[in-house]
Sequence to fold (452 residues):
Amino acid sequence: MIRKLLIANRGEIAVRIIRACREMGIETVAVYSEADRESLHTQLADEAICIGPGPSVQSYLNMERIISATLVSGADAIHPGFGFLSENARFAEICEKCNVTFVGPSSEVIRNLGHKQIARNTMVAAGVPVIPGTDKAIYDAGEGAREARQIGYPVIVKAALGGGGKGMRTAYTPEEFESAFLTAQKEAEHAFADGTMYIEHFVENPRHIEFQILADSQGHVVHLGERDCSIQRNHQKMIEEAPSAAISKELRKKMGDAAVKAARAAHYVNAGTIEFLLEKNENFYFMEMNTRIQVEHPVTEWVTGLDLIKEQLKIASGLPLSFNQKDIRIQGHAIECRINAENPTKNFRPSPGKITQLHLPGGQGIRVDTAIYDGYVVPPYYDSMLAKLIVHADTRQEAIAKMRSALGEVVIEGIDTNVDFQFEILGDQDYRTGNINIEFLNTHEIGKGEGV
Ligand code: MV4
Fold:
């Protein structure tokens, strides 16, 4: 079993992991930047080691410093959380070489799933539905244009090393293709130092549905149902829920089986997420697999009753899953709203600074995952997410009512937040009837009028 864990992250996820460790009797080591000296994760861990200046590249992204802190503290494992080094195959490989347990899949699995075209081809071979597209790397716009005609317009050009929207462009007509391809490729070369591209048919107005899976090192794989993450802006999710209003028991079984098949084909171990696009006609397609614990994991925890961080730590320790698929039951409905330090009326511009007054909601069926406190200073260097407000109730309608009540109670003074914006989404008629897709925020006037 893991005895001492270093948490290579900050904020609410670091706190979340520290709490799971305390319950399990695992010692914790926090790492922190100079900007996070007064942060909650630094204070809650058994030990804390400063790893450098505020900017992430000099601290939370600095592999040498994090490995040094691990070895100096005598930790036997690293939990990477999300973001930062969580999906960095080189970092996982260094952990393997240093005999430090990386809480996640092997570096090889991370590398293969990080290459979106290799991942895509793996899924084709395994019989998981994928969007019609190219099976080989495209470097040349002319060749791409010929492939695009075969696939059928509209198409989307994607970087092999992309994901999360980087190095991606759509073309609705052949005339648009060359410019879309070259722009996406330039972006990819810049961001990933690699111009390998692939092309898919562009699926219009789908839902973003992702399945949580758990896979142990003995070869057992289960899925924990889906999350609907369709409410997003510029690839940043804003609201996630479980289950999806669009998924019947039958469809859940079909997509869940595909998710398990995908995890097996990838030789996956630990907690993972299979992203699908879901069309109105119930056709679904594999998009990519995420190899980290995700921000929105609490909605799955609430409808399944599992603690996903504890499951990750048990799997990383070599323990088998203590349940199988038939033990998993989806109960009630959970919704998560991300509360960000940003101003929706100023194009969501980040709003760091000191929190001068704070009240967070509570009560039955309400969970707040956060590392903020009264007087906390939000540093300018990191992601703007301040807190996750998660609610659970018997039905979707009751969960929406509970979320609106909870959002209405939130007081965060001194900085701008998206709380009112979230409140307004939850009041929208299409949101309330579950009539949502990834274009929701582009097609609804939220935050532009008087509000609801
Ligand atoms: C797509 C797509 C439509 N058709 N692929 C966005 C990020 C990356 N995971 C892939 N993405 C998409 N791939 C095909 N063939 C639409 C998106 C997409 C998207 C997907 C999920 C959630 C939000 C999105 C926003 C814009 C585009």
Observations:
- The CA atoms of residues 89 and 111 lie 5 Å apart.
- The chain has a mean pLDDT of 97.
- The radius of gyration is 22 Å.
